Amino acid sequence: MHPYKYIKTNEANTAMKAVTESEKAVFLAGGTNLVDMVRRDVTHPDLLVHIKDLPYGQITPDAGGLRLGALVSNSDTADHPQVMKDYPILSQAILSGATDQLRNMATNGGNLMQRTRCPYFMSPDFPCNKRNPGSGCSARNGMNRIHSIFGTSDHCIASFPSDMCAALAALDAQIQVRRPDGTARSIPITEFHRLPGDTPHIDNTLEHGELITFIDLPGETKAYAPKSVYLKVRDRHSYAFALVSVAVGLVLEDNRIQKVGMAMGSVAPKPWRATEAETILTGKTPSERLFKEAAAATMASAQGFGGNTFKIELGKRTIARALHMALNKA
Ligand SMILES: Cc1cc2nc3c(=O)[nH]c(=O)nc-3n(C[C@H](O)[C@H](O)[C@H](O)COP(=O)(O)OP(=O)(O)OC[C@H]3O[C@@H](n4cnc5c(N)ncnc54)[C@H](O)[C@@H]3O)c2cc1C
Ligand code: SF4
Q1: Model confidence pLDDT, tens digit, residues 192-203
Q2: How far, in Å, is the centroid of ligand 1 from the Cα of 22?
Q3: What is the tens place of the pLDDT at every residue in 251-293?
Q4: CB 252 within 8 A of CB 227
Q5: How far away, in angstroms, is 26 Cα from ligand 2 center?
Q6: pLDDT for res 192
Q7: I need a labelling partner for 145 at 20 to 30 A (CA). Which of 109, 122, 139, 161 fits?
Q8: d(CA 74, ligand 1 centre) in Å
């Protein structure tokens, strides 16, 4: 393990200034992802800036929706009465991940920023373009059971494993960011993470030193609450990342689907919005046949790499089942 310095602050400006002063400095929130990577020699920061005491630890009503502080723990977010009532798929998604202990430590901002679980990325002995640009991708012709079937490139086929972010994508969340120069910006969740292209070492659109402050859930997507579900398929029932997951919310009127939000997790380098399914479903009368048609259209552009090809059929079945469950939710 490489040596590093550590500071703790309760001021956002101090934290951002400290991180911008060194290219290798990073924010430390719950530490459940970062500390693992430092210990395993996957990443070598020279400074950890502990931000857990910054004033972003509340959940508050905002513009008809809900504003989640970036430093609220995943547990407190999932258990919040307003999240459970108005955005139940977010609660379900968070509770389907990791363990109680991890969720108590993990923060919302850290969850957005978590890195892939590709085993070659996490093992410094293997070539990996994401960890060491230009070294090659061991997964393409190696073990790729958990890897992406959408959005890959010749340089990287890693998947983004967050459950929380799949739900945030279906709910049209906005990520609020504070910049070191004192300005702020807002990024739609679907534009926050990026595809690997020929720069797979860059996971997202956050610039060095920028701080995630809040995640905003819009008032409009509360309408999904009565007919929504987060369905996660994995190797074990607990303490396992998704192989495929689907977050879906429906709004029905006169037995027609008036509005639908659907996103998949663990199938792409970012939460994958199922736009084909959304288009096919909108305005139609729900039926099992329609659900299968929507599922097939979404998965039509998926590409497997051997070990993960099973995800294409699994994805179809998971979408159709999630839609069935959402429709029939009491
Ligand atoms: C064994 C295990 C099982 C897991 N299972 C699941 C699972 O099933 N599903 C799932 O979705 N996740 C799972 N996780 C991942 C877990 O959700 C993440 O590790 C956690 O959400 C990261 O949050 P953190 O606060 O601990 O982040 P940290 O580890 O502190 O930080 C992670 C990254 O985020 C950056 N960061 C943190 N906060 C901010 C901020 N406010 N602004 C800018 N950058 C920031 C840090 O600099 C760092 O790069 C699992 C993790 C482990 C260890
Ligand atoms: S899939 Fe991406 S993260 Fe995994 S070995 Fe290839 S380049 Fe590295």
Answers
A1: 999 999 999 999
A2: 22
A3: 999 999 999 999 999 999 999 999 999 999 999 999 999 999 9
A4: yes
A5: 22
A6: 98
A7: 109
A8: 10
Q: How far apart are CA 146 and CA 305, in angstroms?
A: 10
Return the pLDDT at 237: 86
Tell me which residue of 26, 74, 30 sits closest to 46, measured CA to CA.
Answer: 26
Classify residue 235 by its DSSP letter.
S
Cα 113 to ligand 1 centroid, rounded to whole Å: 6
Residues 283-311, mean pLDDT to the nearest whole number: 98
Tokens 């292209």, residue located: 197
Q: Is 42 in the pocket of ligand 2 (CB under 6 A)?
A: no
Q: Is 271 in the pocket of ligand 1 (CB under 6 A)?
A: no
pLDDT at 224 over 80: yes
- pLDDT recorded at residue 1: 75
Q: Please indicate whether residue 26, judged by its CB atom, sits closer than 6 Å to ligand 1.
A: yes
Domains and CATH numbers, the chain: 5-50 (3.30.43), 222-327 (3.30.390.50)
Q: Which ligand does the CA of 96 lie closest to?
A: 1
* Distant-in-sequence contacts of 133-139, Cβ < 8 A, 24+ apart: 133/199, 133/200, 133/201, 137/200, 139/305
Dist. CA 133 → ligand 2 center (Å): 10
Q: Which ligand ends up closest to the CA of 307?
A: 2
